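Worked Example 4.2. Read the sequence first, then its structure tokens.
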Amino acid sequence: MNISAAVQGKYGVFASYRQLFESREEKRRTALTPTVDADDPLGTLIGSVVVRGEDVHRLHPSLEEALERPAAVADDAPDFAVHVSLSTVGRTGYAMAATRILQAKNLRPTRDAVSLLHALTNSPYATARALQQLAAEEKHRELRPDELRYAVGMLDPDQLLSDLPPTVGRIVQTLLTAENRLSQRDLADRADVSAQTIRNYRNRLEAFDLIRIDENGYRLALSFQTTSERRDPVIPTVLKENQTLLDAADAFLETFLLPARYGDPDDPLGGVLFWPPDPSQLLAHPRVGPWLRLAAALTATGSPGNNRAVQMGPSLEQQALSQTPP
């Protein structure tokens, strides 16, 4: 992939691989050499590559390193590099997938629908697969929560909440397909998990208002396909525009930490809630990071570090003006 990227890079009309990494002397000797603008020494990548798969984020550091030096830089290489942008799929990717699929069905996604699709499905591909199950409408309108429940419920459990333990996906998928509230025993039987597993995760799911529990049992906080809930839609309160990642993190950490840690400004987890609060610090945390990334999706919070850039080629003494921070 790194060699392919170098071949696809260019500075002006000059191919970056031939200019920077070509090891064959005869090829270098006959190649024309660009005049590098010292104020703009960065080339561009012509194409783009999509890498998908489970745990693909673990490839990110190795990919950065490989792209920076796909091969040894030639001794007499011109003084330019190629700007390569690396990004992980975010809310925009899910919104684009939902819009494209629903447009053909005379439907349009709402802000809440995009947030739920981003939070629950493991990729825009899964989002597209789910929404493809819906029928076309005669009149253009917004997607309803009960329709979203039906569509996402058609996915397999392993396509849901894949950052979290697989049993969480099974619990949520079972609640998506339920037609009414389920007792803990029924939920455990249908999801093929233990009652203890449900108890292990229910407080965390409740903290984000993804599930609601009362004396009648468990339900997902998303409209059932009933007339009453079509008229009066049910959605998680965390989706409201005034809800922030800090609000969601606060509710989650209150269930996750002992009171002494939750109220300790020096605690490595609880401390992010104290001034200046910054729950985004926990997005990469090995234990709570997956839950905080779920919260970020639900609250439509962009994840810092989703977009990075590497320079493929030699180290440049002068940075391009367009890349210099203000």
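Now turn to a second chain, presented in exactly the same format:
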Amino acid sequence: MPEDLLQPPAEAAPTAEPPKPAARPPEVPEKFWDAAAGTLRTEALLKSYLELERRLSQRAARPGADAAPEELARFRQAMGIPESPEGYSITAPHALCCADAEVNGQLHAAHFSQDQAQLVYDLAAQKLLPLIAEAAAAYEADRQRAALVAHYGGEDAYRRIAGQLAAWGQAKLPPTVYAALASTAEGVMALEQMMRGQEPGLARESAPPGAESETELRALMRDPRYWRTRDPQFIQRVTEGFRRLVGSPG
């Protein structure tokens, strides 16, 4: 469209001022902020992140067999591993699971931390001790049974007398006394003597003054002298104690 020369020229629009750069957010370090552009320096941030990732991976990686002592020391410090096996502080979860120097040495060589080493002992107490106790009880029962088989002249003879003793003992004796006698070879032999009339009739009253009670006799049977070393005098004491619980028939 042709310009109207009779009209005054239009005033030029004022020039807009350029926008000010954005301010740096407080959570962004200065080295990652371009103040002139008001933007994040992504290249510097990415480079710093990659370097941090590299250092962390090296720090967490398990040192090789040829690692320098300084590298091993840094790794152990970062992972909570003591400087030596003696540095483990093990709380024994059971009397049979106390700290063992040889075990601790192997744990330290495998780079176990303090918490991991403690867990090994805790799991041993929780899982292995019950299995060991069961195996020991089964072994002792087999040993006691073998002694009875030999005493009675063979498996068949023992089975015959065992059935008779079980029937008589369960009918004549209190359950706790029968269970105590039937749990050992010596107890079974004492039970046979009672059945054959050498020690008739179990007294239901209390034991005579000075004699061990049934509870005390059961405690004596748990003594290692009774079940481990098989002390003849100690075994005789227990056997006689049960015999003293036997009275004359009414």
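Notes for the reader: The chain has ten helices and two strands. The longest helix spans residues 114-151.
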